[in-house]
């Protein structure tokens, strides 16, 4: 898999940003370069436009078409993705929150494959609201591929966002939320999660469908900086809310258990204990030593 094609060929600055973020123990900050920046008013306009177009009679049709196309594409491009442990989630009949490590714009395709193998054909994705402003085919996908936009405004989080989330749960659908928040390109290690995803799951009484994607280097070189990689998605034990606990207490319980599972999955996958001391090997496919000679 050519992981660099989705993010641009030059990853050196991003790897440097990851190194500095790890040193600062700032595991949830943005590390990508040149991401578009929007004002608060622009973000509100983007979300308002999205909510308005959801009322359009063609919205459901466009969503259906987009879902069919993306699902077909996912099956095609994930042929070499191995999914381990899918039997753990086949029996889940309710809605749920999928959590996974976030290292590529593409890794949700591996999650889609796991969802498909579990007998599901629809997956919602919580995505930053500004992604709705993307243009072209990617913009179409962001707007119509069962996206639930995330905005930091409390009025939106407690209103439209929660309504869309609960509607998905009521339909017994699974929603992919990245508790690590920002994408860290090809970073192998699980990062300490934020609590929001777990609170929404606890409040709705749905399980956490815990996943961890292992990234393996391949000998084939993608470009001067990267080798191709392949994914092995590990489906971990689902985590259910404890009926004796409040939503708040459950969110902490589920978050901690999910993080522990992902750390254990990392150790099992790579054969070494998790340490946050940064090394070049933390970035899958990263091979800077040969840049000067190739």
Automatic annotation (TrEMBL):
Transmembrane segments: none annotated. It holds the Pfam family Acyltransferase. Keywords: Acyltransferase, Transferase. Signal peptide: none annotated. Residues 96-216 form the Phospholipid/glycerol acyltransferase domain. GO terms for molecular function: acyltransferase activity. SMART domains: PlsC. The keyword Acyltransferase applies. It comes from the Bacteria. InterPro entries: Plipid/glycerol_acylTrfase (IPR002123). The keyword Acyltransferase applies. This is 1-acyl-sn-glycerol-3-phosphate acyltransferase. It comes from Lacticaseibacillus rhamnosus (Lactobacillus rhamnosus).
């Amino acid at each position: 898999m050519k992981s660099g094609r989705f993010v641009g060929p030059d990853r050196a600055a991003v790897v440097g940003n990851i190194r500095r973020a790890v040193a600062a123990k700032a595991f949830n900050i943005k590390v990508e370069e040149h991401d578009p920046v929007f004002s608060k008013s622009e973000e509100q306009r983007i979300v308002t436009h999205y909510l308005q177009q959801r009322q359009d009679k063609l919205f459901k049709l466009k969503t259906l078409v987009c879902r069919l196309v993306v699902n077909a594409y996912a099956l095609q491009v994930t042929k070499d993705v191995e999914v381990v442990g899918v039997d753990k989630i086949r029996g889940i009949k309710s809605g749920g929150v999928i959590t996974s490590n976030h290292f590529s714009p593409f890794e949700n395709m591996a999650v889609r494959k796991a969802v498909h193998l579990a007998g599901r054909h629809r997956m919602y994705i919580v995505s930053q609201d500004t992604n709705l402003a993307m243009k072209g085919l990617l913009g179409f996908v962001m707007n119509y591929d069962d996206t639930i936009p995330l905005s930091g405004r409390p009025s939106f989080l407690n209103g439209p966002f929660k309504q869309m989330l609960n509607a998905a749960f009521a339909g017994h659908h699974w929603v992919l939320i990245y508790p690590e928040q920002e994408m860290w390109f090809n970073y192998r290690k699980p990062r300490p999660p934020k609590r929001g995803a777990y609170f929404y799951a606890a409040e709705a009484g749905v399980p956490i469908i815990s996943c961890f994607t292992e990234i393996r280097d391949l000998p084939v070189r993608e470009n001067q900086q990267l080798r191709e990689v392949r994914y092995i998605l590990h489906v971990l034990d689902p985590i259910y809310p404890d009926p004796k606990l409040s939503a708040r207490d459950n969110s902490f319980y589920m978050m901690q258990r999910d993080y522990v599972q992902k750390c254990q999955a990392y150790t099992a996958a790579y054969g070494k204990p998790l340490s946050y001391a940064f090394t070049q090997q933390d970035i899958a496919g990263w091979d800077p030593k040969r840049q000067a000679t190739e």
